[in-house]
Design goal:
This protein has about 70 residues and is mostly helical. It is about 50% helix and about 0% strand. The chain is built from four helices and no strands. It is extended. The two termini are about 20 Å apart.
Length: about 70
Amino acid sequence: MKKIPIKNINLENAYHAALNNSKTNFGIDDLNILIGDYVGNHKKLKSMSGIEFKTHKAVLETGRLS
């Protein structure tokens, strides 16, 4: 299993950087999703992208992501 480091960041600094520099580690949308309670419209996204969504339970049962 790959270990992914967890890093604490100063949210105010991250937003300031995202607003003023397009080459930051986090964009505004990334930060909003990470800290918010974003709920997407999956039906609309499915029709626009052609992606077939699966529940997290279905993905775990198959043991693969595709």
